[in-house]
Amino acid sequence: MNLGAPEIILILVALVLLFGAKKLPDLARGVGRSLRIFKAETSKMAADDDDDKPTVVQAQPEQAPPQQAPTPQQIAATPAPALSAEEQARQLEEQAARLRAGAASQADKRV
What we know:
By secondary structure, the protein is mostly helical.
């Protein structure tokens, strides 16, 4: 995409008309800050990716839900293997569903 002088001037005029001459410096400052933050975060992510050692995640067979929901102490005592964020989120959702099901069954027993 080649932008010549007439196109750039037209874009600048449109910006001045849309935002006003008083708001343009604030807008440019905000864009500059956002770009600096974005660059810093992407460089951190790249550094983190370089530091990480390749890990092999093996699929585990699905287990039947336990009869009784685990207590928070049991959950905290269980060491968590190194998993991807998506896999951890999926496991947490499954644990929450099991806990909800256990709480619902206990509430049904009380009634």
